[in-house]
Every structure is written in structure tokens, then in C-alpha cells.
């Protein structure tokens, strides 16, 4: 690596956050969500650490993500939350012993057309009110009737997803939980009883949702699913520290313009650092002027527009020069939650923005 940009991943923080999930749901098994490249943290770096720490299974969004995880040879179950997207994926899932989440009629037809020669383990997703994926509750009887015709299919359990777990007091949670509990009571006998409902927000705040499996995602990376709270407030530790360096400096006089579009003008003489990071790396262009950033251990701000490969920082009143370390977010820099709030988005998106051209490195 020659370009001085890296995202450091803390193994101790990953282990700590997994233990926090266990402490909140001590009777449940942990299916860690590592979809979207472990929420931008790099599944190749994070999954081995979680495996060594004793995670019980992994959840991904697609067959392609499952194959990336499979190549790591971690010997943990892999659940495809989106289920199969083609009939051919059913056969490959069977060969790999992936778990499939079945949520619509087309997938049932694919199962019927691709009868495997060995057991295929699946979850049945029920729509408890989010209306994104899943069978309507009144259709589960029909679904299980079809499944009974094929002894190679093992239904691990029912699965659903909460729409408002980031707002634990919202009564919509109670409605979804009630529907799910009714379906579990009605159909659990036709499954292996391995039901799953809780995501990060529910793991942390809705213990009644802790079924056989819980599926923590965002909290595994030390981030809070709750507006107005950071991961540290919840006893979590941030996993990612995204760093770069100053690669050039500029002295501007009052009236000088800076960057693309000449949108930022110096009100007085100032000193500017050019940092090797830009929107091509996933640093949000909207954070171009006035965003918190840390340079050589000192707090300062960004200036002007973010370029594809570079951005500007104000080093007028701090001790910094070419080669000085810059923490873009996480670690000792601004939290992903605070930057997400500034952009009117969510921490999930902040990590997922970081591009693969940014190397990830594991540290203790």
C-alpha cells in the first residue's frame, strides 16, 4: 500500500460487542449479520474474529455474499436472508448447506422444481406488519402444507423483521411481536423451533423478541441503532477507525478560493491540509465544509468541496504538516453516528459507503 488511507478494524471491539449481545440475550444463539461486506467493515476481516469469539452463525443477503464467506472456511452456518433469487441457487445452497429464508411463492416453486438429494434447511419468513418480505400470516397453513410433501426440506423456524425496533416504546413493535408469537404458537410444531425475530435494536431493548436466534447487525460494529445515542452509550465499542494523512499543505490569503467550483473563500490568511481521502473512497461529499475531523490528534474541520480522491482540512490553528495522521471517522475521530446525524441519514449507511479500494487492517 502506498496511498496513505486505511480502515482499521478492532478485533477486541468485535469480541466485546459480541459479548454485549450475549449478555442481553443469554438464552439465544447469535446469528451475526455480516451482509453488505459486514456493514462496510470487511467480512474477510470481521468474520474470522467473530468465529474465534464463538458466534453461532452468520447472516448474509445473497448467494454471492455467502460464497465470499464460505471461501473463508470458518465452518459456521450461513443464512441467506434474501433466500434464493433463481431456481439454480437452490441446488447450490443445498450443496453448500446454506440456510435459505423463503418468503414468497416463486421461491416455493423453485424448491419444487429443484428437489435436492440431501436435506435443505430453511426458515419461513412471515410478514408481521412491515410489508417488505414474507408470507401473510393467514397463508402459513398453505405454505406448510406444500412443504410437507418434501421430506428433504427441514424448516428450522419462522423468521420476521421489526420495523420500529429503533423506537422501543413504539406500539407498532407490540403489534408485530403479537403476530409473530401467534404464528409461533400455531406452527412451531411443524418446525425445529429455531425462530428468529430480534435485530440489534430488539436485542438491546426488547427482550420479549429473543427467540432461539437473535440477529445482531449494527451493534456488532459498535454502532447504535437508536437516534440520539452512540454505541458507547449502550456499552458498545467502535470497531472501525478510518484514517488517512495530509499529503500537501497550502497557505491561503484572505480572498483566495479553494477547491472545485471555487465555493469556499478564505476570510483571512489560513493554512490548509490536503488529505488523501475523497468521495471515491466513500467519504460523503456532503461533508465538504464544516464537518468535524481529527488531525494529529487535534479537532478541526473540513473545508470546501470533497474531491474524488482528496479533501481539505483547516490546520491554521493546530500543529500539523505533511504526513500528519487524519482520522476521518471512528476511533479517536468523529463518531459514525454523529456524522450520520449531520447528513440526516443513519449509521448503517456511513459504514456501507466505505469503498473496497480502502484497505482494511485488523488490530488488537
Describe this entry's structure for a reader.
The protein is α/β, with parallel strands linked by helices and 364 residues long. It folds into two domains: 11-223, TIM Barrel, CATH 3.20.20; 240-363, Beta Barrel (Lyase, Ornithine Decarboxylase, Chain A, domain 1), CATH 2.40.37. The protein is 28% helix and 23% strand. The protein has eleven helices and 17 strands. It has helices at 11-24, 35-39, 43-52, 63-70, 87-96, 105-113, 140-147, 171-187, 200-205, 336-342, 347-353; strands at 6-10, 29-33, 57-60, 78-80, 99-102, 120-125, 153-159, 213-214, 240-252, 257-258, 264-265, 270-275, 292-295, 298-303, 311-314, 325-330, 360-363. The strands form three sheets. A seven-stranded parallel β-sheet has the order 7-6-5-4-3-2-8. A hairpin with a 7-residue loop joins strand 14 (298-303) and strand 15 (311-314). It is elongated. The two termini are 20 Å apart. The model has no long low-confidence stretch (mean pLDDT 96). It comes from Acidithiobacillus thiooxidans ATCC 19377. This is Alanine racemase. InterPro entries: Ala_racemase, Ala_racemase/Decarboxylase_C, Ala_racemase_C, Ala_racemase_N, Ala_racemase_pyridoxalP-BS, PLP-binding_barrel.
Fold blueprint:
Blueprint: E1 6-10, H1 11-24, E2 29-33, H2 35-39, H3 43-52, E3 57-60, H4 63-70, E4 78-80, H5 87-96, E5 99-102, H6 105-113, E6 120-125, H7 140-147, E7 153-159, H8 171-187, H9 200-205, E8 213-214, E9 240-252, E10 257-258, E11 264-265, E12 270-275, E13 292-295, E14 298-303, E15 311-314, E16 325-330, H10 336-342, H11 347-353, E17 360-363
Parallel strand pairs: 1-17, 2-3, 2-8, 3-4, 4-5, 5-6, 6-7
Antiparallel strand pairs: 1-9, 9-12, 9-16, 10-11, 12-15, 13-14, 13-16, 14-15
Amino acid at each position: 500500500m502506498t496511498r496513505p488511507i486505511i480502515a482499521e478494524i478492532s478485533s477486541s471491539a468485535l469480541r466485546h460487542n459480541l459479548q454485549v449481545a450475549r449478555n442481553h440475550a443469554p438464552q439465544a444463539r447469535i446469528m451475526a449479520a455480516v451482509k453488505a461486506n459486514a456493514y462496510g467493515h470487511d467480512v474477510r476481516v470481521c468474520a474470522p474474529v467473530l468465529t474465534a469469539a464463538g458466534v453461532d452463525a452468520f447472516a448474509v443477503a445473497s448467494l454471492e455474499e455467502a460464497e465470499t464467506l464460505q471461501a473463508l472456511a470458518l465452518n459456521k452456518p450461513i443464512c441467506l436472508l434474501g433466500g434464493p433469487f433463481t431456481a439454480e441457487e437452490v441446488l447450490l445452497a443445498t450443496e453448500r448447506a446454506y440456510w435459505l429464508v423463503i418468503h414468497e411463492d416463486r421461491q416455493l416453486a423453485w424448491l419444487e422444481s429443484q428437489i435436492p438429494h440431501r436435506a435443505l434447511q430453511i426458515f419461513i419468513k412471515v410478514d408481521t406488519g412491515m410489508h417488505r418480505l414474507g408470507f401473510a400470516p393467514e397463508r402459513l397453513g398453505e405454505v406448510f402444507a406444500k412443504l410437507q410433501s418434501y421430506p428433504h426440506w427441514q424448516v428450522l423456524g419462522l423468521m420476521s423483521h421489526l420495523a420500529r425496533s429503533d423506537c422501543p416504546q413504539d406500539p407498532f413493535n407490540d403489534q408485530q411481536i403479537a403476530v409473530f408469537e401467534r404464528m409461533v404458537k400455531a406452527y412451531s410444531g411443524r418446525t425445529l423451533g429455531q425462530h428468529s425475530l430480534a435485530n440489534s435494536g430488539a436485542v438491546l431493548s426488547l427482550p420479549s423478541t429473543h427467540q432461539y436466534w437473535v440477529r445482531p447487525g449494527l451493534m456488532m460494529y459498535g454502532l447504535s441503532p437508536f437516534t440520539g445515542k452512540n454505541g458507547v452509550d449502550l456499552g458498545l465499542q467502535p470497531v472501525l477507525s478510518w484514517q488517512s494523512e495530509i499529503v500537501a499543505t497550502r497557505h491561503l490569503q484572505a480572498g483566495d478560493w479553494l477547491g472545485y467550483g471555487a465555493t469556499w473563500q478564505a476570510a483571512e490568511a489560513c493554512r490548509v491540509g490536503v488529505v488523501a481521502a475523497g468521495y471515491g473512497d466513500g467519504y460523503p461529499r456532503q461533508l465538504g465544509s464544516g464537518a468535524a475531523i481529527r488531525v494529529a490528534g487535534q479537532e478541526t474541520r473540513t473545508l470546501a468541496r470533497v474531491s474524488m480522491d482528496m479533501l481539505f482540512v483547516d490546520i491554521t490553528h493546530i500543529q500539523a504538516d505533511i504526513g500528519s495522521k487524519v482520522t476521518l471517522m471512528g476511533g479517536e475521530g468523529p463518531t459514525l453516528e454523529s456524522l450520520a446525524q449531520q447528513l440526516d441519514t443513519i449509521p448503517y449507511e456511513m459504514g456501507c459507503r466505505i469503498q473496497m479500494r480502502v484497505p482494511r487492517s485488523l488490530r488488537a
